[in-house]
Amino acid sequence: MPFMMTRTHGNSVMPEKLASGVLLQVDGLPYTDVVGLAQGPGKTFRVGGGRSNWFHIPIPSVSRIEGSDMYLDQCYAFWSSELRPDGSVTGGIQEIHFWDGTARIARRLNPFLMTGDWSHPREQPDGRGLPFGNTWYPHYTTEAGVDTRFHIYTGFGISLRAEFYFDGNITFHSAGATWVDYPLI
Predict the structure, then answer these.
(1) What predicted TM-score, i.e. pTM, was given to this entire model?
(2) Residue 60, CB half-sphere, CA atoms under 13 Å: how many?
(3) pLDDT tens, 74-97?
(4) CATH number, domain at 48?
(5) 81, 30, 74, 73: which is closest to 55 by C-alpha?
């Protein structure tokens, strides 16, 4: 049974908006308000207070192995957002979209802002007692009521919308996906 895991480092993350004061300089370093600050643990962006921005992560995609079609089983993104000196939040991730090339195949609107340290697999209650976290299992239900995994035809991407109440840093550490050769969940 073919199985594959693909990963990408946080330095591959690209912001959607580069102008209009959405991004600020990281630690006062020139051009980091355009390209972010790439370092060993990932890429850091500084987002202006009262602003939001989408950040896009390309994930290496697998469509066939050993003659078998491959299907997206799960995916993840790891990040951390800065807290203010008094411990309050600056911002975090509000919404996640999953893409097969130009087609959005799934989305997740979080019940509240995912702030602080999400640099490893993590879950917490959503306020209704249901867990949510930074590892996702995108799938769809057929007309016959069968839960089915997505076959990615062009290229897989994860997009994260960051919302910031105050100026603050967000660092993207890594992202990835697991692929299996069985479409049904």
Answers:
(1) 0.94
(2) 9
(3) 999 999 999 999 999 999 999 999
(4) 2.60.120
(5) 81
